[in-house]
Amino acid sequence: MPNRRTVFIVSDRTGITAEMLAHSLLTQFEGPEFRRVTLPFIDTQEKVLQVNEQVRAAASKDDERPIVFSTLVDDELRSALKVDCALCLDFFEAFISPLEQELNHKSSHTMGKTHSVNNFGEYNARIEAINFALAHDDGIKPKDLDTADIILVGVSRSGKTPTCLYMALQYGIKAANYPLIPEDLGEVKLPAVLAPYRHKLFGLTIGPDRLAAIRNQRKPDSKYASLDNCRFETAEVEAIFRKEGIPYLDTTAKSIEELSSTILHRASLQRRIF
Predict the structure, then answer these.
(1) What pLDDT score does 30 carry?
(2) What span, in angstroms and rounded, lies between the C-alpha atoms of 10 and 96?
């Protein structure tokens, strides 16, 4: 029987931060199977008591101790979230107290600070970056690429669009993307529309086998999705990157998070939001 554990992720706001922290920790364990239950907006004693009942029910059903990750800010709510039959991991309790001692300053213990819109500058930067990424997807608006922080280039379905959107959402980066299509290949040079922005270009490539698998989901049994065509396109695009001195990454086995962070570092871009 596989080791199955129910994991509760408890937050007084959206739960996004708690989910990210919990995911980072759980991915280090390949053996157990985790059933994740996210419980956002747990901001009253009554709700905490309901969570406790859910945790006890899971312990009884699974015959294993549930794991509870919590980012509750309020001291009374944190104290109420205690269940003997579960492993409770309180992120705030683990880190806030040492930070208060080190900084010689009490924390505000304010709910929702991470994802609030109190900092309108950062919030607006995120919205503007998302709108920019959507408006400049797949080379839709090539005339104002000079306003982009970075321009991702690569073959169709190499991960340009999701990477641009992630960079906009997480970092406030204005990222455009431009697809290199068969008509752009063969001469081993950049399309004329991209030449003025060479300093802003960052390439994405992908393994031909993986690319063919992705394209076959969209257009099965087509020349576009054939392995030979995918080999040709990726080889040509990589030749352009090398000739033009464009930095590039292979997306085959990298997550969007890893790609975005690596691009940010290698392109020396400064994030606008935290």
Answers:
(1) 87
(2) 17
